[in-house]
Amino acid sequence: MHIRKQRLLTPGPTPLYPPALHAMMASDIHHRTEDFRKLYGETLADLKQVLGTSNDVLILVASGTGAMEASVSNLFSRGEKVVVCYAGKFGERWLEMTKAFGLNAIPLKAEYGDVVTPQRLEAALEAEPDVKGVFIQASETSTGAAHDIQAMGRIVAKTSAIFVIDAITGLGTMPLDIDGWGLDVVIGGSQKAFMIPPGLAFLSVSAKAWKKGETSDLPHYYFDLKKEKKNADKGESAYTPSTSLILALNAALKYIKSVGMDKLVANAQLLAKATRAAVTELGLELFSPGSPAASVTAVKAPPGMDSGLIVKGFRTRFGAIIANGQGSMKGQIFRVAHLGYFDFADVFAIVAALEIILAAEGVPVKFGAGVAAAQRVYAEAAGVAR
User: Fold this and answer.
1) For helices 149-157 and 118-127, what crossing angle results, to 10°?
2) CATH no. for residue 176?
3) Do 333 and 233 fall within a single domain?
4) Residue 137, beta-bridge partner list
């Protein structure tokens, strides 16, 4: 009780892969040398392999939002019609961004906790055949819901529109067949399932998206994807890169390759399944029960309780950081992440801590009930006889 290790249990930043941190100590390397070109080219190749795509892959020094902005400013023109699917705070960012660049955004909104269905998207594209792009979140982290990207990708692929996906928390937590599903732009961030600090964004760009970008008339300078591609082909970045984070990403990608991207996804999904089983056993309700994401589990606070008390309980009792709800959901839900460097021991500890926090707040709890539910999920997956 007197020593509390800080634990990040949020959907970003996430726990860091230790060898990636060690790799950062070699960051006294000049970015216009052959040594760095070799490192940068190797990192891009590994990232492309991990994403499982033949499309171009680029790295930007930015948060994931920088890559989101780059996809708008490089690929579209003022006044073009785009469909923006949104069902949470991060989807609203797409809407704000497309409007900021003067696009004619057609909103497809779903209530928090819900998702935009493929049927709604198909109807919208049939009603507006001159739409040039579709924007969406793969995993809406603010609500713990996941969109059906596979079905939507096949719908968009039949049109001239390009499909732009914020997969910042989707990568590494859900299957995303970039080439097979027709995903034209897929965006990721370093501080999520890639297990390194914030500061890098990356995106894959399809041939269809590059062709669309040839007619773009929107201004951009730093986030110039053509310039980045030209330099990346030579093993360089257009501007000064974050050498320390490239070193970290290089180490993390080698780890992901050794595990297998499919296994990283399966890990997140299994941890999410165990967490959902545990909180349900404790009598709590999931916020997005119909389309739950594997990146994060969003849970409603017990009736009459502010979810901030649970967030505070994790911090003060156990030195652990979980996420409250955002915007109108603040005080209503709490969120626990599963993406990246998480394992089952983390889940057992999180659930045990939650039981104690609930009991301390006067919620009737049978100690061990939630943990046992998580253990059953583990035992079944591991083939442990019970």
Assistant:
1) 20
2) 3.40.640.10
3) no
4) 166
